[in-house]
Amino acid sequence: MAEANAFRYPVWVRGDIDGFFGLMVDNLVQVLLIVALCTTVVHLPESYVYQRILPGVAISLLIGNLFYGLQAHWAARRDRNATCTALPYGINTPSVIAYVLFIMGPVYYMYAPKVGEAAAADLAWKAGLLACLVSGVIEATGGLYAEKLRRITPRAALLGVLAGIGITFIAAEFAFRIYTSPLVALLPLAFLLLAYFAHYRFPWRLPGGLLAVVFGTLIAWVLSSFAGGEGSGVRAWLGGVLMSGGEVRAALDHVGWVKPTFWGHELWSMLTGSEQRDLLLRFLTVSIPMGIMNVIGSLQNIESAEAGGDRFRTGPSLAVNGIGSICAGLFGSCFPTTIYIGHPGWKALGARSGYSILNGIFFTLLFLFGLGPLLKALIPIEAGAAIVMYIGIIITAQAFQATPREHAPAVAIALFPALAAFVLVTAGNYFDVAALVSSGAPTLADFVLNPEPRTLYLPGLLTLTGANSAWMIATLILTAIGATLIDRRYRAAAIWCAAGTVLTALGLLHAYRLEGNVIYPYFIWQRWTAGAAADAATTAPAVATYAYDAFPIAVGYALATVLLALAAWRAGRAEVAARPPTSPAAGVVTVPEGVAETPTTPEP
What we know:
Blueprint: H1 2-5, H2 14-40, H3 46-79, E1 89-91, H4 93-115, H5 117-140, H6 142-152, H7 155-180, H8 182-197, H9 208-226, H10 233-238, H11 245-252, H12 264-272, H13 274-282, H14 284-307, H15 314-330, E2 337-339, H16 343-348, H17 354-368, H18 372-378, H19 385-401, H20 408-413, H21 415-437, H22 444-449, H23 458-465, H24 471-486, H25 490-506, E3 512-515, E4 518-520, H26 524-527, H27 530-538, E5 545-548, H28 551-578
Antiparallel strand pairs: 1-2, 3-4, 3-5
């Protein structure tokens, strides 16, 4: 009897090695991405990245990976499931892109002319911490509302926003990077396509992601050893990727214990200061949607695991996901964590719980012993660019695959605001470069104020994008309207359209104020404040300024709401007219002559 009741769940199996390398490489590329974006887009000093952000990343990864590893043990014993695989967990790629490009970068460029580059970079970092905390709170409390939110919001709308980010700011951005440095990045792309598209099994079951990073790094180092002066042909072949032994030696000098720092007091001072607190409120249009979509994505991944035979409790799973993001923000990281998609893939590799626990320990040791600079010096981001591009492709593909087929046109609508934002951000970068070459170079505001045939639709790009990355909310609303109309749910479509009307009238959607190439918010209360109007005209008198209040769009949304409400009214009347007549006295349905009467059983 004792033998029959005995149950053993292994602490470590051979498949945990494969699972660890896959999850480790995935998170490794996210870290390289964080380093690259924070130092180039936000202009954060390297000390901020290696002594503040990465230790916070280590804390968040350790908390989540340990919990989900132990959770697999609990679930396995409860269900007597010896093949239970822990939920994969790591840094949320879309949030990294969104927070750097749509929160931290704009804050830096907004404040750099006023307070200086160093102070602006510090403010951008703190704004990222606040956004991470908001996302963490939303994730931690997700168990209370996630299911209801998922019922009232079409899946096409939720996944459509991620699809837009995935195909533009993730997949396209890194596709361009790959073809800028093709000799370093194309072979890793081939490894990724073999591993993930063809499910090709490499010798000794080596993970394709690991091979991609290893071979890309080897090519970069070998060719860099032959690179000569500035005019060297090898340098041109490398496409800007140049590895240096001197950087490795300098990175080794920084190896040592990096004590995690609690930044709660800094965040509290931000929340108590009126101007700094405005940074939190201003960018809620980014942090709230990303937090909600993180919750919904995590919920779907938990359901995916259950479909594969591994049942995990939803509440604790979402709560710890949020706690990991909150701890990230409190200890210096601006980037939320998430339960990863792809649990069936890790299960197919034979991974159990050990891969998750080892992943958390690995990154904790890596970043708390100051090995971040060494990682950057050894591995070029181009070697892992294909992995990030693949993540963007999968996110986009999932939006079409995981929604009803008839909702595909609604998902396609979601791509247009993202494309507008992508073109606008890219154009803004190039205009800034042009301004460095010539002080008389035109800015976005100049082109809007003095339209030319080649820039005729620039106002449309700006309007669809809006300020504060409000295009994410606009995408959600437009896609939801499309999905509900496909289902002929006219009343729901009218409600979504009315929401767009109100938010646009308030200035939360589509409104913006331009100063040169910098886009500022333009809320309704700012239009009615004389000081704000004066500030718009005098902040930078040498730079062209332009303000758009989006009232015409609000009126258009309002008219569309009326149209959809009328459609709902007509559909309701037609439905009532189509119902069989009833006897008002007895409440009995009158059966037409020639139709057999069948007994009915009332629903419980």
